[in-house]
Amino acid sequence: MHVTVLGSAANGGIPQWDCCCLNCTAARNNQKLRRTRSSIAISLNAEEYVLVDAGPDLKFQLESVGLIPKLNEAGPNFRQSRINAVLLTHGHGDHTVGVAEFSTGKSFNIPVYGPSDLIELLFGVNGRLNYFGELGRLAKDYVKPRILTENEEFFLLDGLKVEGFPIDHTDKLSDGQYYPSRTFGFEFMIDGKRLVYTPDLGKLSDSLVKKLNGVDVFFMDATFWWNNELDRVSGIKKTSYDLGHVPVEESMEILKSIDIGQIIYTHINHTNSLADPNSIYSKKVKENGFKLAYDGMTFTI
Ligand SMILES: [Zn+2]
Ligand SMILES: [Zn+2]
Ligand SMILES: [Zn+2]
User: What is the whole-number distance in angstroms between the Cα of residue 24 and the centre of ligand 2?
Assistant: First the structure.
């Protein structure tokens, strides 16, 4: 299983357009510190890829990692998709708005998988007018929306087993619905190797901890280091838990005791000291044997 990190930042990327905090200023001055919105691509042959989440930076991410059409394969019309399927974790914009990129006039019928309420939110239900589905013509002409039921196992590419499972992140309303949709984590399995991806995670539940036992690679939410980080840096009173993210300070303690091959922190917010690879916090993460994701990171398991 070949893994490419397309992006490793939270909702606003680094730098964030409206911010000049230390991390954002450093990233403006040093290209290497920039991070785009979180997404990974998985392949078995380094030719065709499954995309997990599609954020606002998608087009530039595909260009920068070279996931682009090949002239010798694209044929006389110069069009080729090397994206075999798209899996969406949840309805927040940093994970979904890149789907609009697929409305470029050539229908590759790429299947777009997600929880039922997310697919309905993005592509409409019962013919009701909806931006992606109708106005953007995506579901009409370009992609194939596919509803995933929880813990349903299915296969992509040439034998990659995939399972979407429910996790805590998005708000649960009083009527039992989730806003703007439920959240899934994804597990990928082939040849006895397992990878779990949860870029946005509000709780390391017992069932998730059980699943993580023995996993080879686990991508974990690293939006905030502290629970009160937004207040400390930006004067915003919302806590990490309010926004559906386990702070790294706490997740690291829990994850240390679980048998996981490699933990990779991703979805890093501009307020988080992990955005600086030389901060004492980044050093602490590395001392515990964890890694920090970065844009363009690749590895094979
Ligand atoms: Zn997010
Ligand atoms: Zn900032
Ligand atoms: Zn989110």
Answer: 4
Closest ligand to the CA of 20: 2
pTM of the entire structure?
0.97
What distance in Å separates the CA atoms of residue 194 and residue 206, rounded to the nearest whole number? 19
Instruction: Name the strand (E) or helix (H) holding 248.
Output: helix 248-255
| Ligand 2 centroid from CA 29, angstroms | 13
Ligand nearest to the CA of 11: 1
Radius of gyration over every alpha carbon of the chain, rounded to an integer in angstroms: 19
Confidence grade of residue 40 (pLDDT, cut at 50, 70, 90): very high
Write the single-letter amino acid at 226: W
Cα→Cα distances 164→52, 86, 154, 173, 178, Å? 11, 12, 9, 22, 17
What's the gap in Å between 269 CA and the centre of ligand 2? 8
Architecture per CATH, domain 2-300, reads as: 4-Layer Sandwich (3.60)
What element of type H or E holds 83?
Answer: strand 83-87
The mean per-residue pLDDT over the stretch 106-126 comes to 91
Tens of pLDDT, residue by residue over 81-90, are 999 999 999 9
Taking the centre of ligand 3 as the mean of its atom positions, its distance from the CA of residue 71, in whole angstroms, is: 36
Return the ∠ at Cα 244 (arms to 242 and 245), rounded to 5°.
Answer: 105
